[in-house]
Specification:
The chain has 173 residues and is mostly helical. The protein is 54% helix and 6% strand. The chain starts with a helix and ends with a strand.
């Protein structure tokens, strides 16, 4: 009688089905981008954007290296919005066309959806970038959460939290 209730394999009939779901690397495409190359691409983008943001801040009369007073909310907001605008001016076309920033293009990597299709500019901005920008604006907590996001790259699939949110991955071109 007990044998009638057990599956052919002898396992638990009430157990959840098991399935392994891996990210799909599209046929004909390269492998996942490594941690080091992703870091270098982010460093290139960050240095370029930081240099330009410094110039914009100086144009508005704010020297972030020797401020005469703490920045006002309006100054902080203006610098954040100018940073976003500069980022999109520098990288918007490349992100739309190839899923690349300047740093990613120089290092031959790009952002794609997990199914291998091209990631749209809207997906990249709304799901990959915006959450990071919003969280990083939170004093102290933003820095910690941004670090945690970046540390997720040390998992086997080399994906940060923003990759998971956007359903994207970075591959070699």
């Amino acid at each position: 009688m007990a044998e009638q209730n057990s599956p052919a394999g002898g396992g638990n009939v009430y157990a959840a089905p098991e399935a392994r779901v891996d990210d799909v690397i599209p046929e004909g495409e390269s492998e996942l981008a490594g941690r080091g190359v992703r870091f270098l691409a982010a460093l290139i983008d960050g240095l370029l954007l930081g240099f330009l943001n410094f110039g914009v801040a100086m144009l508005f009369g704010y020297n972030m290296f020797s401020p005469s007073a703490p920045p006002t909310f309006a100054t902080t907001l203006l610098l954040m919005l100018s940073g976003v605008a500069l980022y999109m001016l520098l990288n918007g076309y490349l992100l739309q066309k190839n899923g690349q920033t300047i740093g990613k293009k120089l290092l031959s990597i790009k952002i794609v959806r997990n199914d291998g299709s091209q990631a749209t500019l809207g997906r990249i901005v709304l799901f990959r970038l915006l959450p990071v920008w919003v969280v990083s604006a939170i004093p102290i907590l933003g820095a910690v959460l941004s670090l945690v996001d970046a540390l997720f790259i040390f998992r086997e699939n080399h994906k940060c939290i923003h990759d998971n949110i956007a359903d994207t991955m970075v591959i070699k071109v």
